[in-house]
Amino acid sequence: MTKSLQGSGDNGALEPPQRARLMLPFQRARSAAECARLPGSWAGGAGPIKTLARVSPPTLIILDLSHLSTVCNLIVKISASSRELPPKGEDAAMNTQQMEQMGQFKITVWEEENFQGKRCEFMLECQNIMERGFNKIRSIKVENGPWVGYEYPEFQGQQFILEKGDYPCYEAWSGNSSYRTEHLLSFRPIKCANHSDSKVTLYECEDFQGRKFEMCDDYPSLQAMGWCSKEVPSIKINSGAWVAYQFPGYRGYQYILERDRHQGEYRNYNEYSTQAHTNQVQSIRRIQH
User: Fold this and answer.
1) Residues 6+ apart with CB under 8 A from 248
2) What is the structure's pLDDT at 81?
3) 102-189: which CATH topology?
4) Thinking of the domain 199-286, which architecture would CATH place it in?
5) What is the pLDDT of residue 71?
6) Whether this model's pTM surpasses 0.90
């Protein structure tokens, strides 16, 4: 930095060069008498800098400069003290929790069957795979966490549970379903699944009325365990996530039921799925995580 300065006031006060102004806004140098009337902390003594007055950053008043390197060090200290501090407390904990959740979910999708064609990895939900340059999804590998795939964009249409494993073609995710779709267009993670801590309550009538039955285990046949109807008009998820099926043996339409959606309350069969056509539910199981 150049040391050539132009004299400009009392006591040989100096005007900082333009390059110094670009680093931090300076006021015009003042006399000692003027500085005595200013608020702030003072430092003085023998040496190249005779008197120094500081007020609220970023204002800095300098007298009798001869070594600009010292001034630069002061500028760095003031700038560092005014920087925004990293998040603490609840904000930091929230960011950490979000990062940990992202690591718990990972899915890879392919545009063609048998893991061929265009591919893409995801750790978060995808509302429309066509916005990523895909025409459709025809094979899937789930590496972490359970997911639910949908027939249409925006999480619409028939649902298909996707637990850890390989799905080389649509038969793999459709399973024994009487309704099959050859591709998926949107998907999302199921965050509340907890296989070891899951509880569901079935009700005989809509809006949680009539006879009820609580369960904490998988049931390939509700009628075999004592439910005397093929229909379940309303369901309350007390904990975890479940997949209900239209027919015994985990066959037919799939309904993904989660504690953290609808507050776990499904008052009628229309809330089971955007494409639910009946309240017929004859088997139910916990979602694996």
Assistant:
1) 220, 221, 222, 223, 224, 282, 283
2) 45
3) Gamma-B Crystallin; domain 1 (2.60.20)
4) Sandwich (2.60)
5) 47
6) no
